[in-house]
Amino acid sequence: MRNKGEERVFAGIGVSPGIVMGKVLLLEAPGLSFTPRRISHVLIEAEIARFHKALERAKEELRQIRERLLSKGMVQQASLLEVHLQLLEDRMLVEGTEELVREELINAEWALEMMLKRVLEAFERVNEEYIRERREDVRQVVQRVMRHLVGHPVPDLEAVADGVVVVAHDLSPGDTAQLNIAKVMGFATDIGSSTSHTAIVAKSLGLPAVVGLKEITAHVRGGEAVIIDGNEGVVILEPSESTLKKYELKRQRYRYLIRELLKFAPLPSETLDGYHMALRANIEFVEEVRALGQYGAEGVGLYRTEYLYLNRQDLPSEEEHFECYRKVATEVAPHGATIRTLDLGGDKFASRIDVPGEMNPALGLRAIRLCLLEREIFKTQLRGILRASAYGKVRILLPMISGLEELREAKMVIEEAKEELDRRGVAFDPGVEVGVMIEVPSAAVVADLLAKEADFFSIGTNDLIQYTLAIDRINEHVAYLYQPLHPAILRLIEEIVERAHGEGIEVGICGEMAADPLYTLVFLGLGLDELSMNAMAIPRVKRVLRKATREDGKALLRELLRFSSAKEAEAFLRREMASLFPDDFIRCEA
Question: Is 371 a catalytic residue?
């Protein structure tokens, strides 16, 4: 055991910015345990009734939390609890547990645990990281039900002392949303990622947070002094006096920067010489659109629709699609919303979609490939998007297009969907734009051909980099090869923009690079028309944009293209940006 006062640094993922200093409040994992047992036939219905009673108590618990949040005006946080309530209604989870009780003659706890394993295994087969993170939501709602089955009390997270930093294995959206902001200063967890619900809620609450720390809970008992640096993804236990002084200065400078940044939110996103680059928001949930205005987002540049298909045994209806897209379109008006069609593999759908297991789902039957195979599923979504176009400006974005034939085939299906709506007398905008995500290297190479038949391009840098450099960005052994400034990537983007503009269509970036102001001038030099990112990143990107000219970007790009390695290019870029914008690229040196 380490000595008291010994400083220890943990590195994780900073998911919500800010710097705080406080005392550790350790939330132990519930440690739920139960005895697996067999039951007789005569006890089947009683056991199922006990399961349903636990379900109802869990639902009521979540409803009370939701109402409490709504009464405080915390609409976005409350909306995330709807996801957990929907999971508790999921037929696959509920009926699957009942079936195991009946067929295996086992108690409800055992059946629920078995069902959880099956669901988590299904999520694990999904290639997209932000979708895989949804498995934590399933785990958390099952844990909530299990608590009631075994009679474990649910902790009251509102009854905490002032000035604490919550340290836990994980926090559910419900747990996080209950935190009293006036008392809790931030949190750190063993697991999680930048795309988990806890990250989304932390950002909306404005609580600095670091996740993915692996085993920080094993090194604290509660009451220790702690620093949370959500900007750098660092947690420091028992910091020394010199470390405290350093971070106090860093915190003051960061607070000043945030105040200054928010002044840029309502200003136009244009350069000193008048070049306008639209800054839009990436969203995953309808509820997120309510917060876009405060950050100065010009509508939605990427609406990921995959969540509509998850955690359910059936498929979303046309009406469900329409209602979601209509809400987004009307909320962001007069700006527009770009809606990406289904970008998943078949392993997460209802059993009636017969898709075999794949060795490499990232390169298999997914996204537009699956949609063109399962056309009725595709057309159901397209009709929902088209109907929403009567209520606001929407655009259709097609993912994982690899060549012209796929684009033409997808556009034919869109025309079929239009004809079906016409026959029903349903209103829609016949001029809805159809864009292509450039994320497959072949699409980048034939960008000139695609630009002749697409209305716009959106470059998905996450996958474009992954596919071009042949690396798995979530594989820790090769993640170091994920290099946004690799000469091949810069040349590809430059070529894509040139080909798109040659045909008179706009091109944007919706990958993670867009949210990092380090690359803003690079994109300016490349001539991008639009950047789409997490809404909270917009003011900082806008501030850099408004301090520069387009020629600044072109000059910087020319220098970057001279380097033969990504490492050299990045070192140069960091030096240049720190020199040009010292207030925007603060680094506190030891």
Answer: no
